[in-house]
Amino acid sequence: MNEVIQMKGYHIERLSKVNINSLEKLYHEVYGRSVAPGYYSKKYDTSYTGVEHVGYIAFNERHNPIAYYGVIPCFIRYGDQLYLAAQSADTMTHPKYQFKGLFVQLANLTFDLSMEEGISLIFGFPNQNSLHGFLVRLKWQMTETLAYYNIATGMISLDSVTRKIPFLKKVYEHYQEYILKDYLVSKKGIENAVFKEGFAGVNRNALYLNYKKYSDTRVIQIGDALLWIKIKNGLVVGDVSCPSGEFDTMLINLKKLAMKLGLKNIQFHTSHQTRLSWLLSSRYPAQPSFYVLFKDLGSRIPLDKIKFTYADVDTF
Prior knowledge:
It is built from nine helices and 13 strands. It has 316 residues and is an alpha+beta fold. The chain has two domains: 4-119, Gcn5-related N-acetyltransferase (GNAT) (Aminopeptidase, 3-Layer(aba) Sandwich); 147-291 and 307-312, Aminopeptidase, CATH 3.40.630. Strands 1, 2, 3, 4, 5, 6, 7, 8, 9, 10, 11, 12 and 13 form a 13-stranded mixed sheet that branches.
């Protein structure tokens, strides 16, 4: 039986396999576009952690979804210890129901549920519009802003041109596969390198990488370097494993690949103080990217020791 909280004019249900498809409808109402069918079912299937469907949906009297807040369980590794944590993920409120306190109400319910489920830390990457709510109303802590590195290729973006025309979009997708086939390797992702640098981070073991299949990402090899990538508004690099002495050669060949693919830029996002940040900052100017925020529910991990790349963001 799904948990139901009755309120005046609406009711709240815990996220479940029964109601999760309502998120697709709410997303369309909020953003005016659609996600792939089953996207949220896969994204919130975190059964590998022992905890899943940690979030709440608000419905109006006609049982139409009007707001949602949820987190995605995962493990943070610090030293030799694993901590059950979660990433603050989708936050949506129907335009007709904004400024009624639903975001804060659903978030606080989710935090209480997280503690009941044994989650000791929640992290997130809110945008500018949500930052004030997280810091002031929900009392989160900010440790840094990820660094964004943009490498222009000088190409016109075939990705943005073709996506508006179904026939050309299909042709371009086939062309992408043809170009990528010589680079692809049979890996689901890249392990997290920050542990070797003395930091904490998301534990990207085999179970986690299998879970991340909900997103259309690939792993490619250039020389001895492995790159976890996604093609969306350019070539987005989630993370990279590369010997320091080969970094420049890898970047040269990566840029050639992006040009072949007709992509206008290559994007990296990473925490400061990491090896990847040092390699990139010595070659390119950094711009501010995602805010890194935490809601510590009793983990006792030094928050400034937790580092991320874009591979750790739920939208990658």
